[in-house]
Amino acid sequence: MTQAKSGDTVKVHYTGKLNNGQVFDSSKSREPLRFTLGTGMVIPGFDAAVTGLSPGETVTSTIPNAEAYGPYQKEMVAEIEKQNIPADFELEVGQRLEMQVPSGEAMSVTITDIKGEMVTLDGNHPLAGQDLTFELELVEIVSQSFYT
Question: Greatest CA span in the chain, whole angstroms?
Fold first, then answer.
């Protein structure tokens, strides 16, 4: 039977869980995730877990944070003054914002605290520092690469 390899476009159903068993995402109630293996479209550990599967095959894979969203980095947390955020913007803990960093790039941050005139922003991915467990099912190999 054909196995998925780098360069193949695949469709995968997945359920992602944290170490405590909490489900953080699942494709079960929607279309399967479609991506091309080996192109960086998904986190490295997810890509590796799908590689070698045949259509209809399932696997459960625990992905260490280094192969997921990386370790939590304290230097990605900053406090800014409220005056640096547009006045018409309603601030709320847990809210995600897009900010422009000094280099001109856009960066997603989460508001983690609001105290007085200070707002704490966290630039880490919400799943940074977490080992993730995925239940995966290779639904289909949509197209195969003949170059690998």
Answer: 62
